[in-house]
From TrEMBL:
Mg(2+) 4 binds at residues 32, 47, 77. One of its GO terms (molecular function) is ATP binding. This is Thiamine-monophosphate kinase. Reaction mechanism of ThiL seems to utilize a direct, inline transfer of the gamma-phosphate of ATP to TMP rather than a phosphorylated enzyme intermediate. Pfam families: AIRS (PF00586), AIRS_C (PF02769). Mg(2+) 2 binds at residues 49, 77. Belongs to the thiamine-monophosphate kinase family. Keywords: ATP-binding, Kinase, Magnesium, Metal-binding, Nucleotide-binding, Thiamine biosynthesis, Transferase. Its EC number is 2.7.4.16. It is an enzyme of class 2 (transferase). The gene is thiL. The lineage of its organism: Bacteria, Pseudomonadati, Pseudomonadota, Gammaproteobacteria, Candidatus Competibacteraceae. NCBIfam families: thiL (TIGR01379). Mg(2+) 1 binds at residues 49, 124.
Length: 325
């Protein structure tokens, strides 16, 4: 195997010439800066995430899945703002140059980029003690239509896309803390390693939702960010949480509910909708490829209150993931 002899040959070999070539990129990879042409009448949405080996992903995990996820978690942030993705930059720290790993990583990264019309326009590669992936994504959203966390009002319904807890189940199984039901491993593992950002749903919610966030650190914690920024509270009925058949088949009911509320890496959308826009939401959501489930209601009293169907409170000791918790 012939290894690249420098940082620059590594960039040329794996990153420089990959399609798509967007018309709004005047100059991409290969210079000190990229030259980009934001469209007239659009706001630029910018997000950034860092993934560290054996913190955010297992170092021995499928590198194609790692490449997919590195971009997906950023696209999920854009989806939560109702933005359409456009560009990305990548900073990659590697303990060594492994061409097999890099080729697979790039396959996963660029397959998702191609799917959503994202062009990699710059970045950096460095040597370091562990693999660290920092990716920044850029997208566009019309003025005054960006979804934010601070718009929820009392009476708004609380909704989520897709199903919750699958990624948390996969992580628990990998750590020996849970067992995935027979025949369900591939589905559950894909939910952890290859999340699908809800970009089309985010765009569709621009004129419908009053607030939104993507669920990266657990539903209870992330919904809490909406409540804090909007200065409201919420009541959530835990039996309404959307759970996949694979998830239900793998966990007892109490463990399932706790996992769905507090585990991270779902990358679904949590959003609020005023009563007068619910019919519009139902019409739009009928065409989505994922589920859309109402789980609760926004209230004036601050705080998140979890209830069972019989009205009794549901106790949750840990609301979600915290890097420094």
């Amino acid at each position: 195997m012939t290894l690249p002899t420098s940082e620059f040959s590594l960039i040329d070999r794996y990153f420089a010439d990959h399609a798509p070539n967007r018309h709004d990129v005047a100059l991409g990879i290969g210079d000190d800066c990229a030259l980009l042409i934001p469209p007239v009448g659009q706001q630029l949405a910018v997000t950034l995430d860092t993934l560290v080996a054996d913190v955010h992903f297992f170092a021995a995990a499928d590198p194609e899945g790692i490449g997919h996820k590195a971009l997906a978690v950023n696209l999920s942030d854009l989806a939560a703002m109702g933005a359409t993705p456009a560009w990305a930059t990548l900073a990659l720290t590697l303990p060594k140059v492994d061409e097999v790993w890099l080729a697979a990583f790039c396959r996963g990264l660029f397959a998702l980029a191609d799917q959503h019309g994202v062009q990699l326009v710059g970045g950096d590669t460095t040597h370091g003690p562990v693999t660290v992936i920092t990716l920044q994504a850029h997208g566009f959203v019309p003025p005054d239509l960006a979804l934010r966390r601070d718009g929820a009002k009392p009476g708004d319904g609380v909704y989520v896309t897709g199903t919750l807890g699958d990624a948390g189940l996969a992580l628990a199984a990998a750590l020996g803390k849970a067992t995935i039901a027979v025949g369900q491993h591939s589905y559950v593992q894909a939910r952890l390693e290859r999340p699908e950002p809800r970009l089309a749903e985010g765009v569709a919610l621009r004129a419908i939702a009053s607030a939104a966030i993507d669920i990266s650190d657990g539903l209870a914690q992330d919904l809490g960010h909406i409540l804090e920024r909007s200065q409201v509270g919420a009541q959530v009925e835990v039996e309404r949480l959307p759970l996949s058949p694979a998830f239900n088949a793998s966990l007892d009911r109490e463990t399932a509910l706790v996992t769905a509320l507090s585990s991270g890496d779902d990358y679904e959308l949590c959003f609020t909708v005023p009563p007068e826009r619910v019919a519009r939401l139902e019409t739009v959501a009928a065409a989505w490829e994922c589920r859309c489930t109402r789980i609760g209601v926004i209230e004036a009293e601050p705080g998140l209150r979890l209830f069972r169907a019989d009205g009794y409170a549901f106790r949750l000791e840990r609301q979600g993931y915290d890097h420094f918790g």
